[in-house]
Amino acid sequence: MAYQLYRNTTLGNSLQESLDELIQSQQITPQLALQVLLQFDKAINSALAQRVRNRVNFRILAPILQNE
């Protein structure tokens, strides 16, 4: 799922670590932790889609190889 890309950010990693601690202390279930992560995925993608206005386009200019 493309949404999961942002789980490797500082915020995403911190969320996962916190959820893991809550699971280990039996304060939440693994199923609830998964629901939280899925909601995080949706929220971060929605926020970025609505608030980020700048887009970057890359163009690669490759030299043309000539036969000698």
From TrEMBL:
Keyword Membrane part of the UniProt annotation: no
InterPro entries: TFIIA_a-hlx, TFIIA_gsu, TFIIA_gsu_N
Transcription found in the keyword field: yes
Signal sequence residues: none
PANTHER family, sorted: TRANSCRIPTION INITIATION FACTOR IIA SUBUNIT 2
Protein species of origin: Papio anubis (Olive baboon)
Domain Transcription initiation factor IIA gamma subunit N-terminal: 3-48
Family statement: Belongs to the TFIIA subunit 2 family.
Domain of life, per lineage: Eukaryota
Subcellular location field: Nucleus
Cellular component, GO annotation: transcription factor TFIIA complex
Alphabetical UniProt keywords: Nucleus, Transcription, Transcription regulation
Taxonomic placement: Eukaryota, Metazoa, Chordata, Craniata, Vertebrata
Protein name stated in the entry: Transcription initiation factor IIA gamma chain
Gene3D superfamilies reported in the protein's UniProt record: Transcription factor IIA gamma subunit, alpha-helical domain (1.10.287.190)
GO BP term, example: transcription initiation at RNA polymerase II promoter
